[in-house]
Design goal:
The complex is a heterodimer of chains A (157) and B (711). Chain A is an alpha+beta fold and 157 residues long. Chain A is built from 6 helices and 5 strands, in the order E-E-H-E-E-H-E-H-H-H-H. Chain B has 3 domains: 216 residues, Aldehyde oxidase/xanthine dehydrogenase, molybdopterin binding domain (Aldehyde Oxidoreductase, domain 4), CATH 3.30.365; 147 residues, 2-Layer Sandwich (Aldehyde Oxidoreductase, domain 4), CATH 3.30.365; 208 residues, Aldehyde oxidase/xanthine dehydrogenase, molybdopterin binding domain (Aldehyde Oxidoreductase, domain 4). Chain B has 20 helices and 27 strands. The chains are: A alpha+beta (157), B alpha/beta (711).
Chain lengths: 157, 711
């Protein structure tokens, strides 16, 4: 039975009438036209669908909309402010840390969540955190460089 | 983890600025009118009119096409280059724009690429086989150099001077003596330029020598990378059309199962759902994915199937051998065995694997007045287009395939099945329909990299020289099946078989399997001859380019020093190979855990040579990607099936390489500016797996003759 859910997405209040079990990813993409988060696996294994829920990373492909109700969601589209890229986006740009780019939004949002939680992550912390995100082009070396660069830039601020 | 960069890696911050129009372009391409908007009011726009589809493929043979099929110069000086290639992360968009900018003598950012829209671009063949660099880059350079020459001739005519007295720089032609100048934009506004561009290009157009390259040879990043990092780039799966429905297709519960009966009633009763059956094809479409899933489930519950026998992945190698077409050919050199000092025989097996690109197969189909438009991710826009023409019995000009930059291919996206599904549903619904495969569908129903059974036999004389070689690949393919080593009596063959699952191309095709078997077997032969694996290879290797990468890799890895001492739990391995006119060698260091049942790749040194390097940074990304991707099938990836069902059709059960798997990478590129550029997105895979297997032997004395390599 469809129900109405309210949530905040990228700072905006949104409402949706839908099945409580429907994944947040599908609501974001199909109801709110936020196509930055991607479908990659549907089982929370690849990280392409990563969003922030109350500032923490979540796999939106396995998060039912009922569990996102009343919460604040940030997608890749909500990271830049006033046309200015988020430092993590800037680092990915500067390192050309993408090949096909399909995993990139999830990679960036995961890295943002990491740096929120641990502004000075160690090499091991970066590796184990980012290990939840798959890049099939296997552009991992540059993505790691970008995360390092973002962390270093954060320290410089 | 350390990742070292080769010396060829160049950071070029001068390219940081971004052409905003690039990312927005696909939206504007939605109609022919949209195309006009993109190109502006340039004089050459009218030249689009003759359907490019009717023209011959322009991949490497495009010189007969008029310049206008390839290049448009707007009255504002904007330059648009058209190609049937696509961008899936391999870097074609930047590389082709570089090629055009080089020959037109304009800065890179002045060039916009339109890729993979079959209604307007020339057919450049598939984006596969490492062919963009050796075939399409030259075709674009030829066309751009011809355009430059035509514009120079026009300026020369206007001023009544010889073209030799003119210089061109940044899109401005200047007469050296009088300092008069004309821009491309000014020339583009004149009718003569339009006429000139319509005709076949002038003969004897020369392209810029490598030593004079200004744009090519530089690290230029992906033009639309800003759209990628902001999430605003629209991948095919992100496209929508007004009134669009989400479609799903009923799959059999096992391979070969036949649909006996199905009841569409329960699905049709759901709000907004359409359900279709046409023989074995059953599909649904709904206003959103969630309801489409529910509708499909409702249909599936009513479906009755008749299963078919199917071999399991465990028994598949015997299955393939038994069905080798014409039987497995016997060794043609039996006399060599009588006089040989040593004879060796081994069989290698390579499992079926999946490409598993991040973006699963997707197609959005829309019918309008009997004409079909499809937005999709494919490496084969024109082949895909032709599939749709055949399937729906349409005139060629009534089908349009549009390929926005998409999420990975690796040789796996050559076929149009998803578009056919979407188009069938769209026809039935009378609305546009998007079909996006689930990950499970992608793992189960997309075509696989073929499994291989490879028999290798060779003889050695008493000096440790190879006297005969017999090499048979059953089922997986003939790529790189021939040995690059000098052996007086050698025969290598590919024999077809009957695959029990759908198989097709995969990055570098069968070269991975053939090079795995050959390089592992060479290692076995080296041991039998009592020689160092490097020395044994070099003793049989004449090709200077292959020798160069092998010797350089060994030097960088300090092979000769390191191989003398043995460290418990550590293994060193070496391998090399050539394919697609490029050359590669790798040395690896592996560690084994205490119980000697787990392999960790610690370091790979790889040396690669593909002629003159066009874009060093992108090349490095391709090499890294190949090496790391290659670790998957080398160590773990394997599709497992039994009773007609895929047992591991999920990332949780099919472990592709992740961050933690990345070893120390020491990559070195030999930049041969004296040689033609070859493609580079595939060959760097091929030495990885055999070097690892050889390192396992070095550490344990055990020969593992299977991919994945498991202890």
């Amino acid at each position: 039975m469809d129900q109405t859910f309210s949530l905040t997405v990228n700072g905006q209040s949104r409402k949706v009438l839908t099945d409580p079990e429907r994944p947040l990813l599908e609501v974001l993409r199909e109801e709110f036209q936020l196509t930055g988060p991607k479908y990659g696996c549907g089982e929370g294994q690849c990280g392409a669908c990563t969003v922030l829920v109350e500032g923490k990373r979540e796999h939106s492909c396995v998060l039912p909309i009922k569990d996102a109700s009343g919460k604040s969601i940030t997608t890749i589209e909500g990271l830049s402010e006033g046309g200015r890229l988020h430092p993590v986006q800037q680092a990915f740009l500067e390192e050309s840390a993408m090949q096909c780019g399909f995993c990139t939004p999830g990679m960036i949002v995961s890295a943002v969540a990491l740096l929120k939680e641990k502004p000075r992550p160690s090499e091991e912390e970066i590796l184990s955190w980012m290990n939840g995100n798959i890049c099939r082009c296997c552009g991992y070396p540059r993505i790691l460089k970008a995360v390092h660069r973002a962390a270093a830039n954060g320290r410089a601020l | 983890m350390k990742v070292r960069s080769p010396k060829s890696e160049v950071r070029s911050s001068e390219w940081e600025h971004q052409s905003e129009a690039q990312g927005a372009m696909p939206e504007l391409l939605v109609s022919r009118r949209g195309f006009v908007q993109v190109l502006g009011s340039g004089l050459l726009i009218t030249l689009v009119a003759p359907p490019v589809l009717a023209q011959n493929r322009g991949g490497g043979r495009g010189s007969a096409q008029p310049v206008s099929a390839r290049i448009h110069i707007g009255s504002d000086g904007s330059i648009t280059v058209l190609s049937g290639k696509i961008e899936m992360g391999q870097g074609a968009r930047a590389e082709l724009a570089q090629a055009a900018a080089e020959e037109l003598r304009v800065p890179f950012e002045r060039v916009q690429m339109i890729l993979g829209d079959t209604s307007i671009v020339p057919d450049d063949g598939l984006s596969a086989g490492s062919r963009t660099t050796p075939q399409t880059v030259p075709a674009v350079r030829q066309a751009a150099a011809a355009a430059r020459k035509l514009l120079l001739n026009l300026a020369a005519q206007k001023w009544n001077v010889s073209p030799d007295t003119l210089d061109v720089r940044d899109g401005t032609i200047t007469h050296r003596d009088s300092q008069r100048s004309l821009t491309y934009a000014e020339l583009a506004r004149s009718g003569e330029a339009a006429e000139a561009f319509k005709k076949p290009p002038p003969a004897a157009v020369t392209v810029t020598r490598v030593g004079e390259w200004r744009v090519m040879g530089n690290s230029i990043p992906r033009p639309n990378r800003k759209e990628i990092v902001t999430g605003s780039h629209k991948f095919p799966s992100d496209y929508t059309r007004p009134g669009m429905l989400y479609g799903k297709v009923l799959r059999p519960p096992s391979y070969g199962a036949k649909l006996v009966s199905v009841d569409l009633g329960p699905a049709k009763a759901m709000e907004g759902v359409i359900a279709v059956q046409d023989g074995q094809f059953v599909g649904v479409a709904a206003p959103n994915t969630w309801r489409a899933k529910a509708a499909l489930q409702a249909v599936a519950q009513t479906a009755k199937w008749e299963p078919a026998p199917h071999p399991s992945s465990r028994e598949v190698f015997g299955y393939l051998r038994q069905r080798a077409r014409g039987g497995v050919p016997p060794n043609p050199f039996p006399e060599q065995f009588e006089k040989a000092a040593k004879a060796l025989k081994a069989t290698y097996e390579v499992a079926y694997v999946q490409h598993a690109p991040m973006e699963t197969r997707v197609a959005l189909a829309e019918w309008e007045n009997g004409k079909l438009t499809v937005w999709t991710g494919t490496q084969n826009p024109f082949g895909y287009h032709n599939e749709l023409v055949r399937e729906f019995n349409l005139p060629t000009s009534d089908v349009r395939v549009v390929v926005p930059d998409f999420g990975g291919g690796f040789g796996g996206k050559h076929t149009g099945e998803t578009a056919i599904e979407a188009a069938r549903l769209a026809k039935a619904a009378g609305k546009p329909v998007l079909v996006r495969w689930t990950r499970e569908e992608e793992f189960t129903w997309a075509y696989f990299r073929p499994a291989a059974v490879i028999d290798a036999e060779a003889t050695l004389d008493d000096k440790g020289t190879l006297t005969s070689w017999h090499f048979i690949n059953i089922n997986s393919g003939g790529a790189a099946v021939d040995t690059p080593y000098r052996i007086s009596k050698a025969r290598s063959r590919f024999v077809q078989s009957e695959t029990p699952v759908r198989q097709g191309s995969y990055r570098v095709l069968a070269a991975t399997a053939n090079n795995f078997a050959r390089e592992c077997f060479m290692d076995e032969l080296a041991a039998a001859a009592g020689q160092d694996p490097l020395d044994f290879r070099l003793a049989h290797l004449e090709h200077p380019r292959l020798r160069a990468v092998l010797e350089t890799a060994a030097e960088r890895f300090k092979w000769r020093e390191r191989i003398r001492t043995k460290t418990p739990g550590t293994g060193l391995g070496i391998a090399c190979g050539t394919e697609k006119a490029s050359y590669v060698a790798a040395c690896v260091e592996i560690r084994l855990n205490d119980s000697q049942d787990q392999i960790t790749v610690r370091k790979i040194t790889e040396v690669f040579e593909c002629g003159a390097v066009v874009n060093p940074d992108n090349l490095l990304a391709q090499i890294h990607g190949c090496m790391i991707m290659g670790l998957g099938p080398a160590l773990r990836e394997e599709m497992r099936f039994a009773e007609g069902q895929m047992r591991n059709a999920a990332f949780s059960k099919y472990p592709v390489p992740r961050f933690a798997d990345v070893p120390e990478l020491d990559v070195h590129v030999l930049n041969r500016t004296d040689l033609d550029s070859a493609g580079a997105g595939e060959t760097p895979i091929i030495p990885v797996a055999p070097a690892i297997a050889n390192a396992v032997f070095h550490a344990t004395g055990r020969r593992i003759r299977q991919m994945p390599i498991r202890l």
